[in-house]
Amino acid sequence: SVIEQNSKGMALLINHKHLGTNFRKIFEIAGRALGLRFSIQQISILVVGLYAPANAGARPLFFNELNGLIEQNHANTDLVLCLGDFNFVEDPLKDRSVTYEGRYEPGLVQFISTKKLLSIKDIYREQNPHGTDFSHYSKQYKTQSRIDRVYGNPVIIDCLLQSEFRTVSFSDHKMVVSSFTLDPLLE
Predict the structure, then answer these.
(1) Which candidate, 165, 163, 133, places its Cα nearest to that of 146?
(2) Model pTM?
């Protein structure tokens, strides 16, 4: 069916002027995750883009597979970004418009391992500890949530210029746009 054919896919858009050298794909989970590595001058950068399964039962398996690929490929990296549609929230009290008592978020435990592997933190939450902006509206449940996120290691968080949610006409998700400057690291 059309829904099944278009039920997964992800893309990373990076300004080619700033791409640097040694750009290469280091891993892929078809339609679900992409790991890219490149350098800008002496700075090694790892970008992990992902689209986690909406199916709650598949999410832990996805993050386990992703963690295995990250373990094999993240050594000797200065800056790390992990971004995409996670299809769950980390903090239901802050990241959902409606909270369900005792709701378990499948995949969260495995993603906490991802965060530890990469030493990453939620960029929005670092900048807005009490913020309640949302990236997705569910017509079915009439709720909002922040399932689209950008994570970074402390070095890249220090380079953040801005991070914002932008409404786009072609999706039921808002686009998360984050801008960084590497100038302090290149001086």
Answers:
(1) 133
(2) 0.89
Q: What is the dihedral of CA 95, 157, 83, 94, to 10 degrees?
A: 0
Q: How far is CA 16 from CA 20, 23, 94, in A?
A: 8, 10, 35
Residues 6+ apart with CB under 8 A from 95: 89, 132, 134, 145, 146, 147
> What is the C-alpha separation between 175 and 135, in angstroms, rounded?
7
| Token pair 């300004």 in the structure block, residue | 15
pLDDT above 80 for 8: no
Element (H, E) at 92: helix 92-95
Q: What is the pLDDT of residue 27?
A: 93
Q: Is 139 exposed, middle or buried (0-12, 13-18, 19+ CB in 10 A)?
A: exposed
Q: What is the β-pairing status of strands 21-29 and 33-40?
A: antiparallel
